[in-house]
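Lab notebook, bench 4. We co-purified these components, and the gel suggests they stay together. Before we commit to crystallization screens, I want a quick structural picture of the whole thing.
Request: model the full complex, all chains together.
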Amino acid sequence: MHHLEVSELFAMLVVMLVAAKIVGELAQRIGQPAVLGELIAGILVGRSVLGLVDPHVETIHMLSELGVVILLLAIGLETDLRAMMRVGGTSLAVAVIGVVLPFGLGYAACRLLGLDGLTSIMAGATLTATSVGITARVLSDLGRLRDVEGQIILGAAVIDDILGLVILTVVGGMVGGGSVSVGAVAWTTGAAFGFLAVTLVVGHLVLPWLVRLASRINLPGTPTIFALTLALGLAWLAEKSGSALIIGAFAAGVLLAKTPRAHEIEKGITTLGHFFVPLFFVAVGASVDLSALNPLDSDSRWALVVGGALIVCGVVGKLAAGYAPFWFRGDKRVVGVGMIPRGEVGLIFAQMGLDQGVFDAGMFGGVTLMVIVTTFLAPPLLKLLLTSKNGGRIHEEPEGIEDLVTEA
Amino acid sequence: MHHLEVSELFAMLVVMLVAAKIVGELAQRIGQPAVLGELIAGILVGRSVLGLVDPHVETIHMLSELGVVILLLAIGLETDLRAMMRVGGTSLAVAVIGVVLPFGLGYAACRLLGLDGLTSIMAGATLTATSVGITARVLSDLGRLRDVEGQIILGAAVIDDILGLVILTVVGGMVGGGSVSVGAVAWTTGAAFGFLAVTLVVGHLVLPWLVRLASRINLPGTPTIFALTLALGLAWLAEKSGSALIIGAFAAGVLLAKTPRAHEIEKGITTLGHFFVPLFFVAVGASVDLSALNPLDSDSRWALVVGGALIVCGVVGKLAAGYAPFWFRGDKRVVGVGMIPRGEVGLIFAQMGLDQGVFDAGMFGGVTLMVIVTTFLAPPLLKLLLTSKNGGRIHEEPEGIEDLVTEA
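Here is the predicted assembly.
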């Protein structure tokens, strides 16, 4: 982690926010969601181009993590738990197939390209986890978070994120050279899913009492700070119990969605999100290393070959997952496309592979390319599918998380 | 600087926010401003008592600095520059006397207690700078920021902050063992005051153009983020040109106060402030080291003697400064009391003295005691003076920065 003076941090935040707003606005003007602009803004100000923002600076990293917590809290506040449970089986099918298929395809493709078993497993693993942050933001950019397709994608992305933890445990154990016990896998799986279940049940019982307690505090902004505190607390608890930070933040939002002051909370969290959420997407963009894709370099040519293969496997695998719940009568294409973006999760796997020596520079570049393309492909594709379906429909609720980006 | 995992940071933020809200609410219930509760909350969770929050953790420090920027931006938005200029001479008199008198009294008292010249100068210096953050927050807690007394105090506190930079240069040079050139002092003084003047003049000319540019960005939250970006940018520029971060943030607020969307900006910044501002006050409280005041320790007994002397000099000096503008017909007591709190600025001087070996543990403890007492004395005294003057008057404007704390 790198360090900064306070004034240097301020300068970096200015660069990130100004770039996010300008490129976000340009993206909207050409009919794309603003989040796409924020990711591109990140690439522009990051190490690949201008070198003004280093996402590995401790405080920038922390602020962007606060951004993803606030985003998932806001998404949770927009989520109707009952509706999500009704499509729970559908989400589960999409998530499981969407993990198994891309993994299998990616592994097979890498073996066909002559790579060894461990490298191929690691490459397959990078294809598994949908980035719930990017997916949710795209849906909310388009005002479609509450559509049945939106609920399925969101549910699948959450399950997917938990499965990603399990895979991280298994693959992490394998590249670490140790054996992976069935017990460890079972424990990770149980802890990850168990956390969400326990939190929702216990939270449902305890929350009314907590809300009454907080309502005795007569300081302005208390509902918003209460919600943020709950999200941060559950995120901490989620990580401590072997689940993922963002699952805790999402659970907090789901629990708070039914409380009396949910609307006030949503407004306050949205305002906080205007500052924090773009920092997350700009930081994701800034952590992309385009130099891994220099076409004059032999590693990079290999990266283009591997990357191309991984992109095909990743896109086909997730699209097919959208068709997995054969009983579902909605738009299967939308579900499949919604699962495509990999984002920061894929980059974490790639970095782990590089650090452990499983990936060389070419493989790292290939995975980076796959992450960029899948992340950048989904927003315009989704937009195309959703607006062609019912021409530029205005969603019902102009306030709240959708407000993090107006519709173009 | 110390480091944290993301989840540890979240846990620390939960502790800080919950403590701030609970103790802030309790403070209000016994008729004190919430900021007093937040400072006490900081002492409770900091190293002196529970040890849960370490204000030297890099990200906590950065977040609390963002808090003071947002606070000063909000204060600036509430400031009527013309009104402040009208009482400019009065503010200047209060600021200058409020620096010279406490310094002279503190120096004399320490010499009488048998201390050497350099230590006495350093001790005098710790008495000079009013904490503009604490003063402004107390006034806004009480809804009196726009009274003529409020404007004088605020103006004096800003000038005072600039004078503090000059003193820091001089004393820093002396304890560093070097000689202090008249040129260096003149440069610091010129740069510090010059920045404010140049920013206000240039900003007045350039801002309408910038606002028009920003208004072409059609993303929600843009006015708030524009304001925050301007404050962070000017804070950075202020530090780079030898002035203080908070002067830049304050100047941004003053400039934006007259723009068409000032009201919307004020609402957004207030919401951001609900999260960031308490972090600043809790961090100030958490950095107080009560162990320097253990009565069983001989250093600490000496600390109580020195601290007692410094408290008398500090309080008398600033109170007298309130009476310095003999032509002023308002409440001179309010102005004097408003200048009393020293806060984080005094602690920075004390730490510098300790690091340079000019202060021993006893002196450090004495200065800490002075900072605690002056900081904690001002809010209840001000509240007493202002409410006895016209019994519990409700201020005109319930929204905006005053909203950072409701009136008790």
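The radius of gyration of chain B is 20 Å. Worth comparing against the SEC data before the next meeting. Residues 391-408 of chain B have pLDDT under 50 and may be disordered.
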